[in-house]
Amino acid sequence: MVRIARRQTQSMPESAQFFHQTLERYEKPLIRYALNFVGQLDDARDIVQDVFLRLSQQLGGVEADRIAPWLFTVCKNRATDHLRKHHRLVTTENDTLDQEESATEAPGAGLEREEDASTLRQLLDRLPEKQREAIQLKFIAGLSYKEISEAMKTSVGNVGYLIHHGIQTMKEQWHALEAA
């Protein structure tokens, strides 16, 4: 099956191959990113589907080295539009995508990890919007500082500042929770 897919990819026109590679690389990070906005996996998938539909319509107009900022900017805009349209408050108490359990895991380890993830999501939600967005783009979407700066329309230095201070704030709050 993999061999067939590779042959099909190689015989595709260049723009279709670029689209296919972009879809494979960014679909899951975009879904996780959209999920942080809308809180529902089905809605996040619909938003990402719309992002890739728009990409397919504008393949010639998007530079390959700027694809990540373009995708995440369109995704954020579509998620914001979705929230406005549906007038919903969003909670980020949702399961993460692609969680896998190990058969050899200790019985309480999974529960502890879920509690830690929930606490981290709560701490992330308390951050100012720009810090939260920069951290999500870096650690959930896996973008570089340059790609984040382009997506957020700010300088690379500011991205570093936002991420650093956001993480510091979360770290301090985490330690305060542990001490309590």
Could you please describe the fold and organization of this structure?
The chain has 180 residues and is mostly helical. It folds into 2 domains: 12-92, Rna Polymerase Sigma Factor, Chain: A, CATH 1.10.1740; 109-180, Arc Repressor Mutant, subunit A (Orthogonal Bundle). The protein has 8 helices and no strands. The protein is globular. The chain starts with a helix and ends with a helix.
Give the SSE layout.
Blueprint: H1 2-11, H2 14-38, H3 41-57, H4 67-86, H5 109-126, H6 129-140, H7 145-152, H8 156-179
Summary keywords:
Arc Repressor Mutant, subunit A, 180 residues, mainly alpha, 2 domains, Rna Polymerase Sigma Factor, Chain: A, disordered N terminus
